[in-house]
Design a protein that fits this description.
156 residues; alpha+beta; Alpha-Beta Plaits; 6-stranded mixed sheet; 4 helices; 6 strands; 28% strand
């Protein structure tokens, strides 16, 4: 079976709170495990960027549910590719909660300081996700990715 990786960005329709993030992550993890989806969610400055990996049908299904989710607006696909291996194979939905790491990944992969989806189009979004998936010691799982259902709030 062929797998795909979809990376999208969206804007939160309300302030991203701890309870909202906890709810999104819990729902994502439950649904993703059933569908064989893996990925990573970043929430930063009222924006989401998320990587979804899995079968073509299931990734499209999940993304269409996200588009219809009233917590998201301005959904935009940044990258959509066939893949031979997953970046987040061990995570039903990993979550990066370190805003300094997110900023460092953004500057390193795009040379930009603002978290704007236009800076993360195409290969830049893949590079951004790869940066978050790896550290000096190699591929995930790495300490800065959190899979616990009670994430701490990301501060801008």
């Amino acid at each position: 079976m062929h797998h795909v990786r979809l990376i999208y960005s969206s804007h939160a329709t309300s302030t991203i709170t701890r309870s909202m993030l906890t709810e999104i992550l819990a729902q994502s993890r439950t649904n993703n495990e059933q569908l064989g989806i893996t990925g990573l969610l970043c929430a930063h400055e009222q924006n989401f960027i998320q990587c979804l990996e899995g079968s073509y049908a299931n990734v499209n299904r999940v993304y269409n549910q996200i588009i219809d989710d009233p917590r998201h607006s301005a959904c935009s696909i940044l990258s959509y590719d066939r893949i031979s291996e997953r970046l987040f194979g061990g995570w039903s939905m990993a979550h990066v909660e370190d805003s300094r790491l997110i900023r460092r990944a953004l500057v390193t992969t795009t040379k930009e300081h603002l978290f704007l989806s236009l800076h993360l189009l195409g290969n830049s979004s893949v590079d951004f996700m790869k940066y978050l998936a790896e550290d000096e010691r190699g591929p995930s799982p790495v300490p800065h990715l959190r899979a616990e259902p009670q994430p701490r709030m990301i501060c801008g």
